[in-house]
Specification:
This protein is an alpha/beta fold. It has 2 domains: 5-56, no CATH class; 70-305, EAL domain (TIM Barrel). Helices cover 49% and strands 20% of the residues. The protein is built from 13 helices and 12 strands. It has helices spanning 17-33, 44-65, 103-113, 116-136, 151-154, 159-170, 183-188, 190-202, 219-224, 234-237, 244-259, 272-280, 297-307; strands at 5-7, 39-41, 69-78, 84-95, 99-101, 144-148, 177-182, 207-212, 229-232, 263-267, 285-287, 295-296. An 8-stranded mixed barrel has the order 3-4-6-7-8-9-10-11, surrounded by 6 helices. The longest helix is centred in the first third of the chain and has 22 residues, at 44-65. It is globular and about 70 Å long. The N and C termini lie far apart (67 Å). The structure holds ligand C2E and calcium ion (2 copies). One calcium ion is lined by residues 210-211, 231, 267.
Length: 311
């Protein structure tokens, strides 16, 4: 057994017992967040942060109706040729007061409040409409736009039919839209995830495993899943090529993916050295700041045209 302790002080923090206990409680949660089995003193910043979180949650509920979300697109590059091999759609929140908010700050909140369900539907539909526009212009015709799903989605038995219906509705060709699911989410309920992945695959929607190597999936499970792609997690790519452990892991994941006939994508490629290492090891696709940051649709379009001009 371990103990996490939060401490508030009379009379500095407050003079009311109720407030003092609430402050100690906030401090205890901070102790838990920061690794447990430790203690924290209450600070005013803890209240400010808790209030900011509540405000963000209220704003999030209005954001969807208010049209404040936007998708950015980041290229995926075929390492052997430098050609565009697809892209990933990444959500941003244009908050009226806070500016552009990164998904790391609101996706967990959307998940815990249930808002992720309509949010994911919005992401899929928005990406589908964009894909349709690009396909009509001859852009990204042979490649997919990959969208991120969250754990809540992977547990929804209607997932595949919902996505297929949206794609059909918008009128995009098969293979235009694909989805990424994190390894951690797959492993929280492998049976349900496996069924959903099989249904998606049958509906012509490819599935990739995101953040591969961070989620303890067994190789036996991987073999049984109808996935098309694995993404080597950024934390491993960041260690290339200097760190022997990072190199060994990347090399093993690439070999595993290739042996299973999967598309292997390395994410977070920032340097030429990293790209060279991955290319030499036979990794098919790279994604990262070296090639392009995530861009708004219009900018992505300009960039993509520069990579493989039409005609
Ligand atoms: P992810 O799916 O692993 O996405 C990759 C993240 O790495 C993105 O952060 C991307 O901007 C960033 N990145 C790309 N290249 C580089 C690089 O070279 N170096 C570094 N340091 N970072 C790079 P972002 O856009 O902030 O997204 C964070 C996470 O939020 C995503 O991680 C994904 O899990 C989640 N997310 C993003 N969009 C959606 C969405 O539409 N739906 C759901 N459910 N989750 C999303
Ligand atoms: Ca992803
Ligand atoms: Ca990832």
């Amino acid at each position: 057994m371990t103990a996490s302790i939060g401490i508030s002080l009379y009379p500095d923090d407050d003079t009311e017992s109720e407030t003092l206990i609430r402050d100690a409680d906030s401090a205890m949660y901070r102790a838990k967040e920061q690794g447990r089995d430790t203690f924290r003193f209450y600070t005013e910043e803890m209240t400010t942060q808790a209030l900011a979180q509540v405000a963000l949650e209220t704003d999030l509920r209005q954001a969807l109706a208010g049209g404040q979300f936007v998708l950015y697109y980041q290229s995926q590059i075929e390492l052997a040729t430098g050609r565009l091999a697809g892209c990933e759609a990444l959500i941003r929140w244009q908050h009226p007061a806070l500016g552009l908010v990164e998904p790391g700050r609101f996706i967990p909140l959307a998940e815990s409040t249930g808002l992720i369900v309509p949010l994911s539907a919005w992401v899929v539909r928005t990406a589908a409409v964009q894909i349709k526009a690009w396909q009509d212009q001859g852009l990204l015709t042979g490649a997919a736009v990959w969208v991120n799903l969250s754990g809540r989605d992977t547990q929804d038995p209607n997932l595949a039919s919902t996505i297929a219906a949206i794609c059909g509705d918008v009128g995009i060709g098969p293979g235009g839209l694909a989805v990424e699911i994190t390894e951690t989410w797959i492993m929280t309920n492998p049976e349900v995830a496996a069924e959903n992945i099989a249904r998606l695959q049958a509906a012509g929607i490819a599935v990739g495993i995101d953040d591969f190597g961070t989620g303890y999936s067994s190789l036996g499970t991987l073999d049984r899943l109808a996935v098309r792609e694995i993404k080597i997690d950024r934390s491993f790519v960041a260690r290339l090529p200097a760190d022997p452990g990072g190199c060994a892991i990347a090399r093993a994941v690439i070999a595993l993916g290739r042996a299973l006939g999967l598309r292997v994508v390395a994410e977070g490629v920032e340097t030429e050295d990293q790209a060279d290492f991955l290319r030499a090891e036979g990794c098919a696709v790279g994604q990262g700041y070296l090639f392009s940051r995530p861009l708004p649709a219009a900018e992505f379009e300009r960039y993509a045209r520069g990579l493989n001009p039409i005609g």
